[in-house]
Structure formats: structure tokens, C-alpha cells
Amino acid sequence: MSRGSVVDKDALIDALQSGKLGWAGRDVFEAEPHASAALRGVPNTVLLPHAGSATVQTRAAMGALTVDNLLQHIQNGTVLSPIPESAHLV
């Protein structure tokens, strides 16, 4: 179990195909939300949309942060959790 960026995808696929690893479940991928064709082709994997934040507490905190960001932006033009300019969507 690990964050997606920590997993060596090629080594994971090799371990699954060779039988060194029985099964793998992934919900975080290098190019969210797309799983690579190589990973999709391994039959002993379960691939899901990223659902790690799907708890009542986390979603409530996400909503509260959104409101706090909006209020602060209205107040002084800044936000509590800015997205770096280098970030981009895939």
C-alpha cells in the first residue's frame, strides 16, 4: 500500500505478471485519472477511481476549506490553499 507516485509501475506490472505478487489494487495513477494500458492489461489487478477522500469527515473538511478560501479571496484577494502556477491538469 502506498501513494501512487511512490510505486514503480513497471516493477509492479512485472511482479504481477511473474507471480511474485498475487494481486494489486490501485486507485491512484501517474496520469490521473487515466491508468496506463499496460496496467489495465494485467488481469490480477483491481483499478478504481481515486476514492481515498470519500469519507464524511474529509468531504466536510474539503467543503469548509472551499468556503474559507472563497471568504478570504473576497476579503483580501488571497486564498488559504493556492495551487502553484506549475501545477496542471492531465
Highlighted features:
90 residues; mainly alpha; 2 domains; 7% strand
In short:
This protein is mostly helical and 90 residues long. 39% of the residues lie in helices and 7% in strands. The protein is built from 3 helices and 2 strands.
Walk me through the structure.
- The chain has 90 residues and is mostly helical.
- The chain folds into two domains: 1-48, no CATH class; 52-79.
- The protein has three helices and two strands.
- The chain has helices at 9-18, 37-40, 56-76, and strands spanning 24-26, 45-47.
- The chain has a two-stranded parallel ribbon.
- The longest helix is centred in the C-terminal third of the chain and has 21 residues, at 56-76.
- The model has no long low-confidence stretch (mean pLDDT 85).
Tally of DSSP helical segments = 3
Backbone shape: elongated
Most strands sheet: 2 strands, parallel
Query: What assembly state would you assign to the polypeptide chains in this entry?
Result: single chain
Task: Write down the overall mean pLDDT.
Answer: 85
Write out the strand line-up for the largest beta sheet, numbering strands in chain order.
1-2
| Fraction of residues in helix | 25-40%
Low-pLDDT ranges: none
- Residue fraction in strands: 5-15%
What's the structural blueprint in terms of helices and strands?
Elements: H1 9-18, E1 24-26, H2 37-40, E2 45-47, H3 56-76
